[in-house]
Write a structure and sequence with these properties.
mainly beta, seven-stranded mixed β-sheet, four-stranded antiparallel β-sheet, about 55% strand
């Protein structure tokens, strides 16, 4: 069973920065994507950014140019550097692991990010 543990998040003023980190308790050798999703109150969970184990990245349009996702395959970690934060970035952020061809998608417990105006 893969477990994802997140850290980071918190309260920041608009224009500020935060860094989220997530570590998996197992090494996944198969092709996979690690990423971050977010869910604001009353909204559906949405993709923020994801990165494949070959380094290929994908970002939501709303965060392009402000957020950067990175991963360390040796350490089983994925980080999300968030800059120029806006109040609309406020949400619970979830770490995600999707193994290609595998039916189970893994989620972290979520971490709150609040951006004040």
């Amino acid at each position: 069973q893969v477990q994802l543990v997140e850290s980071g998040g918190g309260l920041v003023q608009a224009g500020g920065s935060l860094r989220l980190s997530c570590v998996a308790n197992k090494t996944i050798l198969s092709t996979n994507f690690m990423g971050w999703y977010r869910q604001a109150p009353g909204e559906q969970r949405e993709l923020v950014a994801e990165i494949a184990n070959d380094g290929t990245t994908n970002y939501a349009d709303s965060v392009k140019g402000r957020f950067t996702i990175s991963r360390d395959n040796a350490k089983n970690t994925v980080d999300l550097e968030m800059n120029s934060l806006k109040p609309e970035d406020t949400a619970v952020y979830y770490c995600n692991l999707d193994i290609v061809g595998y039916p189970t998608v893994y989620w972290g417990q979520g971490t709150q990010v609040t951006v004040s105006s």
